[in-house]
Inverse folding.
């Protein structure tokens, strides 16, 4: 049986996509993320897993991949994604917990996790789980929220913030919202079986006044150039990393045929029935509603 996993930050019923992105004045963040993604994504791929896909804001950017699995714990986020992207064969929607991915080992040649590690109380466990379902040599793009950013450093030095941005442990500034130290993330990625290939720093100019005064195009162009400094230092609130799954034969990483696996017992023996997948090993029933697999139990 799967061990107890940490709590999930609940986005069920949230209007995150509208309030944060579409009406929240976040064009600068969205466009600079798109640039980083373009730089890091392989030009072609077969099957990509998007962990914490939300309403599918980034999904249209994975142009080179033949099929994409959008995974999110929130059913309503996935419903919004489905409205945006449609129900075609290219997209598979799965409501599931990132700590218990409902897939067999070594399945994906690509994965992304953007603005989602941010909610993981046990980030190393989530990274190990992503590595488990990835093929060796697969590409994993991870975005993380950086505690060692200039604003946090200034606030700390001025005595306006009680946590240190320099120490390696994550900071939980709001319940289930964490910022991480870049060094710690690199260490966790390595432990999980990834090799960090490239780092881009994103959102150098995430300051209200600058966003108001400087035209969007110019701010985005400046950030685009500054992203390359991410190879040397990371002092922005958001950091994108490209990682390669290394060829390590870890226990439990043996190749298994199939696609889905039961998140309750780990068996790949799932029978497809009308509107559900049923586990032949533990009898769990995983419903499929309106084209969305539900593995939350
Ligand atoms: C800040 S949103 C980001 C959405 C999308 N990646 C984007 O950048 O627009 C975080 C997403 O992570 C999902 N999430 C949080 N914890 C999760 C977990 N344990 N398993 C799967 N998804 C989770 C939430 O439901 C939410 O949709
Ligand atoms: Zn089972």
């Amino acid at each position: 049986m799967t061990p107890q996993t940490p709590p999930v930050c609940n986005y069920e019923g949230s209007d995150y996509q509208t309030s944060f992105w579409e009406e929240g004045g976040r064009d600068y963040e969205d466009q600079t993320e798109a640039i980083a993604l373009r730089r890091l994504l392989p030009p072609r791929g077969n099957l990509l897993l998007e962990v914490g896909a939300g309403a599918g804001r980034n999904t249209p950017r994975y142009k080179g991949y033949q099929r994409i699995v959008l995974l999110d714990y929130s059913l309503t986020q996935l419903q919004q994604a489905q409205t945006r992207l449609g129900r075609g064969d290219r997209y598979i929607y799965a409501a599931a917990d990132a700590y218990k991915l409902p897939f067999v080992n070594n399945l994906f040649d690509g994965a992304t996790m953007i603005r989602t590690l941010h909610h993981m109380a046990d980030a190393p466990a989530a990274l190990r789980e992503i590595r488990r379902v990835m093929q060796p040599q697969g590409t994993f793009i991870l975005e993380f929220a950086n505690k060692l950013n200039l604003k946090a450093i200034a606030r700390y030095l001025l005595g306006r913030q009680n946590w240190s941005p320099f120490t390696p442990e994550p900071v939980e500034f709001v319940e289930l919202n964490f910022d991480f130290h870049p060094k710690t993330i690199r260490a966790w990625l390595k432990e999980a079986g990834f090799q960090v290939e490239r780092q881009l720093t994103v959102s150098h100019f995430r300051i209200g006044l600058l966003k108001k005064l400087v035209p969007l195009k110019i701010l985005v162009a400046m950030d685009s150039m500054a992203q390359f400094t991410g190879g040397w230092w990371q002092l922005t609130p958001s950091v994108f990393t490209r990682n390669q799954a290394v060829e390590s034969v870890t226990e439990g990483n043996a190749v298994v045929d199939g696609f889905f696996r039961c998140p309750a017992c780990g068996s790949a023996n799932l029978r497809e029935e009308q509107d559900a997948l049923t586990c032949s090993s533990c009898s769990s029933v995983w419903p499929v509603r309106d084209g969305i697999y539900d593995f939350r139990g």
The CA atoms of residues 6 and 121 lie 6 Å apart. The chain has one domain: 16-257.
